[in-house]
Amino acid sequence: MAREQDNRRDVDELRQRHRHEEEEHDKAATTTQIVVLVVILGIVGTLAYYLST
Q1: From residue 36, how far is each of 13, 27, 28, 32, 47 by CA, in Å?
Q2: How far apart are CA 15 and CA 18, in angstroms?
Q3: Measured distance CA(21)–CA(35) in Å, rounded
Q4: For the whole prediction, is pTM greater than 0.85?
Q5: Which residues of 15-49 are buried (b: 16+ CB within 10 A; e: fewer)?
Q6: Is a pLDDT exceeding 80 seen at residue 1?
Q7: Fewest beta carbons within 10 Å, which of 1, 8, 32, 43?
């Protein structure tokens, strides 16, 4: 009986850890997407400026 509780607790901890890692990954992916978008917009803006002058 105690062994089943230990196993259940271990499974719950693994699920919680996996969920946390997934959330961290999602945050990192979102941050990367924003940075890439800003860089691309900067490049396009710079090209537009130099091409218009």
Answers
A1: 35, 14, 12, 6, 17
A2: 5
A3: 21
A4: no
A5: eeeeeeeeeeeeeeeeeeeeeeeeeeeeeeeeeee
A6: no
A7: 1
